[in-house]
Amino acid sequence: MDAIWLSGAEWLAVLRIGLGLWWLESWRHKDRTAWFERGTGIAWAAGIAEKHRWSAVRSGFRVAVAPHPRVMAHVVVHAELALGLGLVTGFLTPVALVCGLLLNALYFTLMIHDVAEQGQNSMMALMSVVGLFGMSWQTWSLDSALGLF
């Protein structure tokens, strides 16, 4: 593949690293004290889920998330950190890309009424798909250095 300045594999690595930085920014801007001690993040999501137009989202949130708000707050925050670190370093990249795609799909579904959130999650999901099918872990990654995948 001919490309300007970098090779195609290097551009895919740039895309992967950029997506990882986006996940790290998502993690960085969260007020972890509020999320973990006061439960504001899950409380905010509960309000959105309760008014959601799809009953499956409302009932799913009540069953899976509402009974465990502290645990789910840690899951969300630490998942974003793990995704960011995995993608930036290129460690277990296919796993991180699939998990990121699933998390974006979950966010997209929960925030279906918010156009701004739809755009962000759609772009991140598309980047995950391109990174996955382009095998973005082949260049500038721990996966490549360790001979994984």
Textual characterization of the structure:
It is a single chain. The protein has eight helices and no strands. It is mainly alpha-helical. The protein has one domain.
Q: Can you write the helix and strand succession as a string?
A: HHHHHHHH
Number of strands: 0
Oligomeric state as shown: single chain
Tally of structural domains: 1
Q: Give the amount of beta strand, in percent.
A: under 5%
So what's the overall shape?
Answer: elongated
- Round the mean pLDDT to the nearest integer and report it: 94
Q: Which value, in Å, is the CA radius of gyration?
A: 17 Å
The structure class reads mainly alpha
Major sheet description: none
Helix content: over 70%
Low-confidence stretches: none
Terminal Cα separation, in Å? 21 Å
Q: Helix count, per DSSP?
A: 8
What's a quick, concise take on this entry?
The chain is mainly alpha-helical and 149 residues long.
